[in-house]
Recover the amino acids of this structure.
């Protein structure tokens, strides 16, 4: 394929991919009456910031941001620690039942959350966690993908490196801290990014467990607003835009870690 | 078991105040287990316990929290004769057949397109990746904005072009199309990212050798690159299949299973039965378990096929 043609195809593909986001931004700044009258368009005759300011007047938007940030950060810290340790053990330590443990972890991918939602809710309720952020954080900390990525990464770390550290007199834990952790910076970056994004965007489980509008995370708030605004896409898109801008920025800035993490995971 | 592992795992005697362990073997076991333990506890508590509980519920008539009463195979019997359930099975199948090959295939196509040097390549890639960071809720709401029949953007454009409007929301087939389109938008970037990561490791020398041997660009892709990417493709197919089987958010927000039952999926049906107006926990759990078993079977078949090919 000649270069100019490839370039042209790339431009077209990107237009298609960016279009939904452009539509979101434009409608977020389109006056309500224009949408209700002539329908939403990609270039309105008038612009407004009323949709955004109206949101802040009517709803605890900052609170929603704080909730989401808190929940996502807690999950990230817990999830990276737990999955990193497990991934390392599954790749580098030999112990009886290791294969079985890996199989159990992977098989969690196949359990649909919705299939176990009712008993899961009852369990969390009995633990007294309903209305607490822990109800959202704890069940989502262990992820098959996180363990899998960590394991694949550590499989590619040569045993000799760890042995050398041991021979130089490192204790087991200091070898882990001084040799393994610095090595796994790209891995930790991708795991953290994945965990943070997943939790920032998670919808169904927070919807069930966080019943109070003051506790809502952003996706739950969006679903709540869908009911409040009905066909008023202006306000809805304003909130959608606000909710995804921070993550889009983080993602674009850290993108190379993401790609690097996957290329070292050995899923070639 | 090699001596290397032992050296790595067993603590040196000077490091511990405890009496030296009688056998190295007894030390080796705990460290590995200690490191996987937090993970296993979380999985056990929040996944396996509810899973077993769901299995118990599927044999119960349970309409509220607290204990239910046994109803034997009633739920399963109802399931077999339930037209909506079979419709949900069919819809999930159609959705899966549409989304998995397209997500993986387009992901591969775009990865190949954007792998070689090209002005603005990094920018193009970033644009396609962006939906990865967009939540399914935002994706679904934007999908509604695009495909709303009355005020939506797509119909607005079609109207302006004089092509007439499409009944995206009131006609079942079109509603399915909108759900599939938004799913693809949110997934293709991930496929492309994983493929691009894998493409960085393709052996350049083999490619050059193929070129010297007279293989054209298409033949090189087909006979060198695609076989090289097989493990990646396998990973993407498995994960996309699971995602498609478990599709919920986009359907729930965009169509809520409608119009009628034309986009009802297994998971949205399980949710409606368990948490919706019906509040039939036992039946909801039964539908969810069917999905679980289906996922297990399909994944096991794939693993078996993949293994046979590798041998």
């Amino acid at each position: 394929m000649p270069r100019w043609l490839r370039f042209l195809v790339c431009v077209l593909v990107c237009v298609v991919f960016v279009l939904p986001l452009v539509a979101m931004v434009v409608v977020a700044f389109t006056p309500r009456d224009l949408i209700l009258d002539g329908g939403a368009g990609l270039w309105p005759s008038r612009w407004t910031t009323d949709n955004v300011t109206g949101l802040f007047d009517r709803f605890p938007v900052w609170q929603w941001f704080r909730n989401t940030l808190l929940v996502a950060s807690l999950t990230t810290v817990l999830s990276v620690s737990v999955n990193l340790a497990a991934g390392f053990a599954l790749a580098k330590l030999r112990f009886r039942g290791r294969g079985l443990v890996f199989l159990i972890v992977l098989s969690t991918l196949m359990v649909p959350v919705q299939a176990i939602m009712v008993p899961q809710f009852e369990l969390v309720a009995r633990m007294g966690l309903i209305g607490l952020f822990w109800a959202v954080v704890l069940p989502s900390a262990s992820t098959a993908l996180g363990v899998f990525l960590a394991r694949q990464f550590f499989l590619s770390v040569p045993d000799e490196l760890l042995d050398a550290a041991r021979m130089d007199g490192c204790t087991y834990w200091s070898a882990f801290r001084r040799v393994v952790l610095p090595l796994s910076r790209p891995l930790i970056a991708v795991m953290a990014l994945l965990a943070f994004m997943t939790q920032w965007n998670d919808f169904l489980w927070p919807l069930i467990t966080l019943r109070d509008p003051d506790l809502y995370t952003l996706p739950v708030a969006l679903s709540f607003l869908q009911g409040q605004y009905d066909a008023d896409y202006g306000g809805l898109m304003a909130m959608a835009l606000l909710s995804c801008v921070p993550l889009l920025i983080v993602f674009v800035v850290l993108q190379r870690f993401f790609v690097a993490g996957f290329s070292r995971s050995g899923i070639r | 078991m090699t001596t290397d592992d032992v050296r790595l795992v067993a603590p040196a005697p000077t490091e511990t105040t405890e009496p030296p362990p009688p056998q190295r073997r007894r030390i080796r076991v705990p460290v590995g287990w200690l490191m996987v333990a937090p993970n296993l506890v979380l999985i056990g508590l929040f996944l396996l316990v509810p899973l077993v509980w769901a299995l118990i519920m599927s044999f119960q008539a349970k309409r509220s929290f607290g204990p239910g009463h046994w109803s034997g195979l009633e739920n399963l019997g109802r399931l077999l004769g339930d037209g909506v359930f079979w419709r949900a099975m069919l819809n999930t199948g159609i959705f899966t057949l549409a989304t998995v090959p397209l997500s993986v295939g387009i992901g591969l196509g775009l990865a190949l397109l954007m792998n070689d040097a090209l002005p603005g390549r990094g920018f193009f890639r970033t644009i396609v990746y962006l939906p990865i960071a967009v939540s399914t809720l935002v994706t679904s709401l934007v999908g509604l904005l695009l495909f709303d029949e009355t005020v939506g953007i797509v119909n607005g454009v079609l109207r302006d072009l004089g092509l007439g409007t499409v009944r995206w929301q009131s006609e079942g087939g079109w509603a399915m199309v909108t759900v599939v389109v938004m799913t693809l938008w949110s997934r293709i970037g991930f496929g492309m990212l994983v493929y691009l990561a894998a493409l960085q490791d393709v052996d350049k020398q083999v490619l050059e050798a193929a070129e010297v041997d007279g293989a054209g660009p298409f033949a090189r892709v087909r006979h060198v690159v695609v076989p090289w990417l097989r493990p990646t493709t396998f990973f993407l197919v498995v994960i996309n299949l699971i995602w498609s089987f478990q599709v919920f958010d986009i359907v729930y927000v965009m169509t809520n299973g409608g119009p009628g039952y034309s986009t009802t999926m297994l998971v949205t049906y399980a949710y409606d039965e368990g948490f919706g107006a019906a509040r039939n926990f036992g039946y909801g759990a039964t539908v969810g378990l069917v999905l679980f078993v289906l996922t297990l079977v399909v994944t096991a078949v794939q693993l078996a096929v993949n293994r046979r090919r590798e041998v």
